[in-house]
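Justification of resources, computational component.

The compute hours requested in this renewal are based largely on the per-chain cost of generating structure records like the one below. Each record pairs the submitted sequence with a full structure-token output. That output is archived, and it is also reused by downstream analysis tasks.
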Amino acid sequence: MSSFHPRHGGDLAAARRTFGSPPCAWLDLSTGVNPWPYPYGAIGPETLTRLPQHDAMEALLAAAREAYGIAPASVLAAAPGSQALLQLLPAMRTRCRVAVLAPTYEEHAVAWRRLGHVVDEVRSLGQRPDADVVVVVNPNNPDGRITDRETLVRAAEKLAPRGGWLVVDETFADVAPDVSLASAPGLPNTLIVRSFGKFFGLPGLRLGFVAGPPTLVDGIARRLGPWAVSGPALEIGRRALADTDWIVRTRARLADMRLRLDGVLSEAGLSLVGGTDLFRLVETAGARDLAHRLGRAGILVRSFDRHPSWLRIGLPPSLDALQRLSAELKGAR
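The structure output for this chain reads:
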């Protein structure tokens, strides 16, 4: 099997190899990560000197259940990042047919293909009615496409009688909580994956969650094994997920910067395809050249081999950074 992984944003070492050292500090806009991380503060030394504690895990799961609005009938498990869950799920089924609603985050198709599953990248949920597993990223990465709850519920109900799964990746749902399927009661064979690091600006902490029926989630937890989540992740994750004031303020702050970024992109003549309050997707005939020009100026954006006219641009961390981007875009015209 191929060990290929798609390119991802945030690789500054690769950027240096490609563009050299920039004249000033890198402005990394290549990821969909909140540029204003949660102020996690000090952590107790015991989170590093002791094995992760069961009561700390239970406290984290309780905070996550409340923050995400998980339905009472669903079980929740924590993992060392949502990416780990994406890699694990294909190992839990024998060879089957998988439909991935595309274009989307490429690791989904890659992970299922790597373990021998037949993967179809489809443009609508009804395109492969014989699929055993359907994967939907909602809101979608990179174009922000929303699949409504009613459509997802119908898909789950069609899959259930033959033991099929609906996998909903809600990595970016923190900025669009109304689209989340987490609170839907009693959905059969539906797994909802959540990422902690994107919205809370702490991707290096490696923390993610999966919610769904006990028969599936308990199996995932067993495969993850004991102590899958580090002590610092348990402690910081619990604090952040319980901090409702910070969550509300941060959603508003992200939305404000997204509007400002849209204005800069529009002024530069870039066509907005979509996105979320954590990133924007634009289209331009000179996307590759523009990405290289920005890279040489120390501004890293995300390009796509399979969609050469697209660029994904994350939120700048300050008005000065936004102005820096604006100046470089104007210079490129």
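The first helix runs from residue 12 to 19. The domain at 49-242 is CATH 3.40.640.10 (Aspartate Aminotransferase; domain 2).
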